[in-house]
User: Fold these one by one.
Assistant:
Number 1:
Amino acid sequence: MSGVDLSHPSGEKLPLKVFREAVEARLESCSEEELRAILRSLASRVRPSERFAFLQSLHSSQDAGAQELRQHELLDDIAELAHALPEKAKDWEDVWSESDVLGPYAELLEPLTALFARAQEASERGQSPLAREAYQALFSLLEYEDPRGQGLRAEHLSQVDFPEARARYLRAVYVTTPPEQRAPVLLEQMRRVRSLLPHGSRPLMQEWLDISSEPLPDSEAFLQDWVSLLRQQADPDADAWLREAIRLSQGTRGLRELAFSEPTRHPRAFIDLLTALERESSPHQVLSTAQEALEALPSGLPLRAAIAGFLASAAERLGQPDTVRAARWEAFVSQPTLPRLLELRDSRPSEPERAHVMSQAARHLEKVLRQPRAPSGSMATLPHNGDHLEVPAHADRRLLAHAWLLAHDGEAAHALAAKESALGWTYGDNPQGTVVPAFLVLLSRQPLGELPRNVDTLWRQALESGTQAGDWYSGSARHDEALRERLARAYGEALAAFSVEPSEWEQMLEWCLEVARKRASSIVSRQHRRSYGKAAVLLVACAEVLWLLGEQARGNLLLAGFRESFRRHRAFQAELDEAVGSPAPASKR
């Protein structure tokens, strides 16, 4: 399959154009016997329910005329389903419950999905006028809303590849529109299909380029008109489409001109430019361009963090550790999130240097918390685009607690957490849920892999909730897990190097016990039943630390006091039993 690039990220959809070119290249390289073998292999994978359709597809070329005739019935069938929508709306009160999301409309999902498949077939056959009308009518069905505000939406059609459907529609609009009208008509229709799936990906011109192996007619003239029209718009969608059009028509040269000519109006052009340069494997160009971009953009813009990320990556490839460190600091200052705090820490080669930069980060966060930062300039008017590059990060006290603890500064971490409530550890920005478990780990004087059962549970809970520090933005569960692992590794190194003066051990212990008593008493006395397990784990973790320190009686007394005080709270007593698990261990001293 020479000439066909099949390199594609795992899990992403292969563009139809690339797929077709690969198929054609494979067919050209096959002998008749090889084609027979391929066809037999495909037939062996067909499910029983799809065998008849598979056999029909083998005769599709012979039945092209009949298929085209049947396709023209498509518009009538769509109109018939459109008439059924108001009728279905009348069934809500008589049949369907309030909690049902789709109600009677669920019955229309299968026929609507079939109509989308037929519209796709019209597009595949090059019947652009029919495809345009069919998709336009189908999208109108998805805009229907009954008096209750209900209706069918794109996200309900799980069997329809909606991005592909809108790409087919937009290409049909392009092909069937006179050249002099294409730009304004396409802009209107791009906005329309964008509204059908507002939380999905933004439609792009590249999609309707890739939906066909045929070149787009008059594309150069259209791109000129398209760029000219988009320059007159001021919204984020138009900005994205303008940057794409300039990339397609002028490449990195055009993106550079756009970015540096109006840096505050098109700041994302810097991201597009750096992305393109990175794909070209030009670390020197990435580094110099990122440095120029940071000089051109006003300070305080969250987007600077992403640009600093490009700078750090290029500097790492070029072996420039000083530039890496400067870039990581810029990224953290521009958008102080937990991932950026950890990247900043990792940019230092030794634990003492890491502790020092964490102390600097903590002092910066204290300034931010005293005077909350707001977006400035034109960026303040732009809503986020789904990737949060332009959203100011919310620096909170839990992020500050991470910084002080990773700086080996227990006194500062204690001062931050001591004035907070003993409740609200899981959500919000209460730093006690991070500081108390960290102190208990230190007091246990055990490696993280050998912590007592409840201290370990409490510490894992702290890491779980601690990943939400700084209001950072997660992309997936896998991303969340990766961040927890990074945070755990950082603490593993930092806590092992933590230095506590002998006089501070007892103060640290007393404070943890005081907080544990307040937290457990508040949870149980207020009957927060869902948190009984958390209270029990915290109490028994404190007892485990006391037992490890040789204070067997004191640990037993802590638990006995709560058993007596809340002897009628059977659910809490059961959680205590579960946390203890077995008789208290003998002292290790």
Number 2:
Amino acid sequence: MSPRHHLLPGIALALLLASTGTRAAATDPSFLLTGTAENFGTYFPSYLANGYFSTMTSVRGTEGNRAYMVAFMDYKPGDIARPAAIPGWSEIDYNPGGGWLNSTRLGANIFTGYKQTLDMHDGTLSTRYRFEYANKATDVEVTTFVSQASPHLAATRLTITPQFDGSVQLTFPIRLWSEHQPRFPIASMSGDEMIAAVIASGQTLDNKPVPTPDRAAVWYPGYTRVAASDGDAKELTLWLDGQAEHGLTMAEAAAIGLPPGLVVEDAKLEKSLYKLSLNLVVKVQKGKTYTFTKYIAASRQDWGGKASDDVALATAARRKGFDRLLAEHRAAWHGLWKSDIVVDGDPQVQRAVHSDLYYLLSNSTVDTAWPMGACALTPGYAGHAFWDSDSWVFPALLLLHPERAKPIVMFRARTMQPARERAKQYGVKGTMYPWEADPETGVDYTPHFAYGVFREIHVNADIAIAQWQYYLASGDDAWLKQRGWPVIRGIAQFWASRVTYDKGHDRYEIEHVTSPDEAYDDVPNDSFTNAAARKALRIAVKAAAKVGAKADPQWSVIADKMYIPFDEKAQRHLDFDASVPHDKITWMGSSLAWLMYPNLDLPMSPQVRRNDFAFQLHELKVHGDDPNEMMMVMLAVGAAELGDGKTAGEWIQRNLVGFLKPPFNVRTETVANNAGYILATSAGFVQSFVYGLSGLRIEDDGLAEAYAPVLPPGWKSLTLKNITFRGRHYDITIDRGADGKAKLTRTAI
């Protein structure tokens, strides 16, 4: 190889580093979320993830943290399927002689100058402080990322600058978690039995002070059993093969990078029941900086190989080096941020939009058929796929990142067989998708205590609507015929067999339904369900025509005669049949706002729309308690549809208060509880911009301006950057014309 060719990799790396902007100072502040020592007592962990695997964050940046892998589930008999925590990979510990860093109590006088920053533009977590303990001080910097460019890889880098001479200890563990205790037979426990069991274990399901999670007693992680593990102290590698309880196999490996010229006094491999580690004793000099890097490779059955393959990946990553891996990772994130939502006029809202997009992107994949678990790559809501995946996350991604929305609809195509079997179980035809689907198999794993939600059947309409939206946005006829149409057809067959005909009123009804306002369990003619079912049936007729299939004539008959409860005197919709009192205290107060939900958007007159919205607000006050964020974020959409930019802006502001837990804007289910990481709430906030303020709708004839756009007072503009629709790319800007009114402009790019 000539000298010229030898230089090319270095030149390429320099150009890559320059193009990705390695200086944090160059990053737009709206992409930066920072914690200080003031957050020590209320630190609500975030996570780093690339859609395939993750690690939770921690205050020091070096602790052992739970980690999870996409659709990697524990199937312990008697329990529901739940995400199996994979061995914790991000930990590095350091002992300057007076005590281990990760065991020393948190205090502003011990961790001085503390600052931890989640850079959402780069997808990195950086932590720095001076560790002052036992009369020794060390400057510490930690940087961790889960690669967006190489999905099997992650790395964490510890840089220390000791203010003394001497020997120090470092350990690079992989944590082998024990099985969570107690484990409850949630597959068979009633609600009362579960509450009693939780209390008997010394826990509660009550709201907790930040940052304690509310539902850890029942949303505990599943177990990964390590089948084989080993390491090589000379090669500085660790590896393991494992298996989720009664589930899939997985593997993990680590390769440790040491600073050049380091004097290693001792290097040992530690193997115990709960830890696999490389332990070093090294000599350091005062004022000299030392950098240690832990390169990780992870895989699971049907995604990657075994431990030997991961060792090869981790050691190859070590040869490539941290800086180059980080540059590639940053470049991948920067590519994602070419599609963005830009708010000119409210920095706080802009930061919230970016954090919500960051969490959606961190959990999405490309060219797969995996859904989005309700609480991302965490054990929240047991990792199951709800309507959240189809009706909340999918529309939020569809125009900004269609390639990352597609796996959600592909999951429903992949799991049609379990849905067919479930339909037979309940005596209906076609496909009946479960309320809580296992993200790997699609099988129903709704907890027994929530058994009644088998009646929350609107999920089947939500799925059909998402399938049609993907087709409309992509224009992919081949996909519709091969994947989308079979799903849509099976769901139409379900609805045709699930409705009943009321001869006296000449209408079709749907009885024994759980409303989206779930306290109303087993009601007739829930308006949201009936409206969604009607839309799904009409979609099936249109899809049949597109693929050259024959639609069942009954689908149109049922749709045309579907009963949507309505109060003629009040000129508004009812939540459900008037025979059921609307008097319960719930998280939502009412579900009428969801009739205005963008992917349903039930046609109604402007006056009815105003009346529905007014009733929703009234009921939220008189029958609402600790409102659910999924409801709250949609009120901005409802206000925008009414042309009320001021009220829409007020609801956007309201959704910044209490729901975003510091320091990393983790959204929680309600203000008072700490059920966090719910992607539907982040996606709902995003939808309030993409479909709410813009007035845009995905319709049969294109991306339509269904409503006039609005802007909250004080905002200069809103830009939806790099929107993709039917293969074309646009910037869509809402700003004010000379008359002060909001106007929408599309610019092809």
